[in-house]
Design brief:
Helix content is 32%, strand content 19%. By secondary structure, it is an alpha/beta fold. The chain has a nine-stranded mixed β-sheet with strand order 1-9-8-7-6-4-5-3-2, with helices on both faces. Helix 4 crosses helix 10 (319-332) and helix 5 crosses helix 7. It is globular, with a radius of gyration of 19 Å.
Length: 339
Amino acid sequence: MIIRNTAYGEEWGLLDPKVLERTKNKPALSDKKAMASIDLSTINFQNVRDGMGSPNKDLTNSQISEKSILIQCQNRYIPAIVCRPVGEQPTLNACLYLHGGGFIGGNSSTLLNQCRLIAEQANCTVISLDYRLAPETPFPGALHDSREAVEWIVSHREYLGFDNSQIFVAGDSAGGNLAVGCGLLDKKHYIKQIISIYGALDLQKISQTLYHWDYSLYEMNKKQKNFIHTRLNKIMYITNLMRPLYIENGLVTDPLVSPVYTQDFKNLPSITLIEAEFDYFLPSNKYFAKLLQKYGKEYQEILYKGLDHGFFDRLGYLEQTKEACLDIAWIIKGKGAKR
């Protein structure tokens, strides 16, 4: 495991100073409210969607072209944005990027600045996908969009401007879940590597998790305990909110819904798990890493200390977000994570 330290050096249990300041300026969310059942009829759903994500900045130093395209899937078209270095024709590699948003929010522009930076630093073509969202399109709609996009991208290399016959698939949160799902379904080996950024790898209720999710699984500085709980509780609440909307009539134990239930890894390519110390999904990511080890799969973990779920959104406001983009770029370039 590669560990990225914070301003506190090798100390554990402390929120990064910028994350702590950000948390102090937001309303607290109690354990009781986060765990309570949710009456969906009382939810202002548009407010939930509008509140997802964080501002971010374009940190590229060179020209990156952007082109909106339509990807042809079975009986439908899915919008996407293609980012690539200007004048580089063709690039060697391509990466399909799947945004986060709890399967109910976000779009292809949400992390476009991150895609631009990865395209620049990896000298590759990055395709950001507007997969369909729940509740309008519940599971497996988003997964079908993502998987079919992989096949379309590989078969349209010349049009998109890259050479390799395999691509990288990366995503954050819900997008990480979808990226892993694409890997589990990759019978034709179109994918070179999966990169999951704090992937939502288990949508199960906490009382039924395989790894017995609990606050005690996290080391917490006593003075910051309430703030750390708030960061964990926010994602717990969103997970409880989106679970019935996304899964609908499916099973939460379906490995394509919650990859921690996977027992068949034969199609899965190598994978990088980028994790955060105070992410609600960290225990599920660690459990999944143990499964990868058990089944002899090639994987690596990169843990960002002091950070929370959503840190990858904050490019230009949080230095570690840039560092994570560089990690991804180095992986795509075949150099492993930036050390």
